[in-house]
Amino acid sequence: MMLIVDVTKGMQTQTAECLVIGQITSDKMVVVLNKTDMLPKEKRAAMVEKMTKRMKQTFQNTKFKDVIVIPVSAKPGGPDSDAPPEGLDNLVNIIKAESYVPKKIVDAPALFAVDHCFSIKGQGTVMTGTVLQGRIKIGDTLEIPSLGVSKKVKSMQMFRKGVESVAHGDRAGVCVTQFDPGLLERGIVCAPGSIHIAFGVIMDFNMIQYFKSDIKSKAKFHISLGHETVMAKVTLFSSPAKNEKSGGGFDFDREYQFDESYSKNSEKSDESDGEASLPRDRFVLLEFETAVPVLPECIVIGSKLDTDINANLCRLAFHGKALKTFTTKDFAKTDLPNLKIYKDKCKEGVVERASNEYEVIVKDLVKKETNVDLFTGLKVELSTGEPGVIEGSFGQSGKIKVRIMQGLKPDTFARVGGGKKKKGENTGFTEPVVVKLKFKRYIFDEKKKMIQL
Questions:
Q1: What is the full DSSP assignment across 105-137?
Q2: Listed residue (143, 133, 136) closest to 293, CA to CA
Q3: What's the predicted TM-score (pTM) here?
Q4: Helix intervals (H) in 132-274
Q5: What is the rounded average pLDDT for all residues in the chain?
Q6: Please, is 374 exposed, middle or buried when counting C-beta atoms within 10 Å of its C-beta (0-12, 13-18, 19+)?
Q7: Which pLDDT tens digit goes with each residue over 42-67?
């Protein structure tokens, strides 16, 4: 990746965002300090050297610690000047030295990234772009997922020369049977059936360290994947990482904890919080406002693009890869109930009295109109330490009976009284005995079933 920096301004907000994108998408980077001719001639060398040191210091906190910085003036004196460029030969040599040919993927379904589209009268519609994988031949059928149509390849050109086929890495113009080019300015074209339109995605989560705000569940973010950027509601969830039971990675068979929010300090808080001290696999469910074509395991970036560009804040919030796509419009009803994301719940009531050493009457644990049958058999614990089980309702006012299997401790029995207390009677204890009902509930379970281990 080549990062262009205005030497008279240095690292700006958008420049820093490009650096973040480079860290996510690239393995190598060259920094170009442009407009060096705008610096005072007598101070130019010193100012360029100072900016170069500043750039290298900035990059020490990135994956590009040994970044090469090249000073350049592409057009000295401005657009009307005839002065030759300065530093371009050095830049070209560096690019040649740093460039490499990636491994070509040709034995895979064709993917073609379209960056421009136009029609030629009597010929068809031409799509220009780059082959991301696979091979395309004249006569092949290509699908345009965003339009839901397929078109036959009539002819192809590379650098204005006709070719019979193109493969991974080739830049080409592909002419297909006629369609309105205005419907596809940019996007992905593929072998039929290799890409699906997604209404939602599950991705792994990586916080971008320069994003200063918390990322909260149910918030909306701009989601960029491929050539598309759409709005989506996010749901955050996590699970202990790579333990023996889970094996690590996303799996519908795993159980996940709902997370209200993530911040750049989330991992540090995990390390200091009991059982959560285990590293955690973090994930995000994205529910798109508009369906988009999604490549398997494509890079996904979440951002707040509506942030004021002059606020000097990084708008890029998180990134990851698409792990699971939902291709049906009603996936919230058909697929999400299979996603075991739970919230920890706790209800509290107060022991009104003890019927005997093995049974207490509890109030305020449920509302009067609540169906107590839903709670029957659930385990509770008294604030004095005794475990119990809900047996059923008591009367019509919302009170419940709790069976204390091991019996009440003598102090507890004395505290709650051995029978119904008379009005105004004082047992000598001011603190009530609290009953806690702890359970978890899957957030996508329509029946809202309460689950206990």
A1: --SS--EEEEEEEEEETTTEEEEEEEEEESEEE
A2: 143
A3: 0.84
A4: 266-271
A5: 90
A6: middle
A7: 999 999 999 999 999 999 989 999 99
Q: 71-102 burial string, b = 16+ CB within 10 Å, else e?
A: bbbeeeeeeeeeeeeebeeebeebeeeeeeee
> Per residue in 20-37, pLDDT tens?
999 999 999 999 999 999
Residue 113: phi and psi, rounded to 5, are -85, 115
pLDDT at 267 over 90: no
Q: Identify the residue whose tokens are 């599950």.
A: 202
CB contact set of 173 (below 8 Å; sequence gap of 6+): 126, 127, 128, 156, 157, 158
> Which residues are CB-neighbours of 236 under 8 A, at least 6 positions away?
205, 215, 216, 217, 258, 259, 260, 261, 262, 282, 283, 284
Whether residue 419 is predicted with pLDDT greater than 60 in this model: the reply is no
Give the contacts of 434 (CB within 8 A, at least 6 positions apart).
348, 349, 350, 351, 382, 383
C-alpha span between 66 and 59 (Å, rounded): 8
**Dihedral angle sign, alpha carbons of residues 288, 289, 294, 298:** negative
Indicate the helix (H) or strand (E) that contains 412.
Answer: helix 410-416
* Helix (H) or strand (E) segment spanning residue 281: strand 280-294
| The token pair that represents 423 in the structure block | 């009005």
Beta bridge partners of 449: none
Based on C-alpha coordinates, what's the Rg of the chain? 32
- Only one residue has tokens 């350049």, namely 72
* Helix intervals (H) in 252-308: 266-271
Distance spanning both ends of the chain, measured CA to CA:
51
The structure tokens listed for 348 are 């509290």
294 and 195 in contact (C-beta within 8 Å)?
A: yes
Residue 52 per-residue DSSP state: H
